[in-house]
Amino acid sequence: MHLDDGGLWRDDAAPFPPSVIILHAVSSGDLLADRRYEYARAYLDAGDHAAAADLFLQALERTPGWLPALVGAADALAADGRREEAEPLLREAAERDHDGLFGISLKLAALGLAEVPDAPPAAYVRGLFDDYADRFETALVEDLGYRAPWLIADLIDRVRPGASFARGLDLGCGTGLMAEVLKGRIEHVSGCDLSPEMIGRAEAGRRYQRLVVADAATFLAAADDGYDLVTAADVLVYVGALDTLFPAVADRLAPDGLFSFTVEEADSDGLVLRDSLRYAHGESYVRRVLAEAGLAVVELERDTLRFDRGEPIRGLIVVARHEG
């Protein structure tokens, strides 16, 4: 067992983060099915995948088509090595999960049963972080050794020692760790995040002059400001393909403005969806998409972004400059 990237305890052999089946479950309307579902969750958390699968399936017998139990059964079966049994359940779940809350498209892709989507469902990301907001900073910094904001700040200092910025934008700002680390260096900083709960926490921290509930692409499309500094700390793992976002950032960067971000580094080039349902990006891919957007790499280094299951998660920390 270990604390996962969503701040939840999970078994090391489980193929996916469990939060989407645990946190978005509502009553089936059948008390016995609900109880079997709860017991199944406990077995899944304890690593007894076979027992969990059996109980999820019992819940489904009483309430056919109940989405949380469908997803739970599929996850438990996949973790138990019974992927052929998991596949039809996931495909049925995909037909029922109309808004993408359970991230079924990601699960199918991670199992090699579908093409990797260019981006995760917005509802999946929003739901994940709405639940995570109240323990976000503690779980990341204290439990997972999260370092992305500090690594970004250090690299910016290396590029422009002691520099201050008139206008900054923090994409996927979360509760505001990036703004806290850069406190005093940006005169006016805006933040956007897909999660209303995260924005609420950021507002309480009073680290930003402006906060908006929106994904990065939507915010950038509507923005009319020019920014001297744009940051994205541990955000692009939930964005996926970068060929739309990077040009949008370039369009909002002032001449000579900086864009600094982190990505988990893929073992191969291109875009990779990991079993964690987070995206990783190869260095060549990152450099190519930046260049196509008119952004020049000023500094790029490798470091440990955080830990998962006691293992370091390596990534790229990048500072790019607008060439306009």
From TrEMBL:
Keyword Transferase: yes
GO molecular function: methyltransferase activity
InterPro entries with a match to the protein in the record: SAM-dependent_MTases_sf, TPR-like_helical_dom_sf
GO biological process, one term: methylation
PANTHER family cross-referenced by the UniProt entry: TRANS-ACONITATE 2-METHYLTRANSFERASE (PTHR43861:SF1), TRANS-ACONITATE 2-METHYLTRANSFERASE-RELATED (PTHR43861)
Keyword Transferase listed: yes
Protein name: SAM-dependent methyltransferase
Keyword annotations: Methyltransferase, Transferase
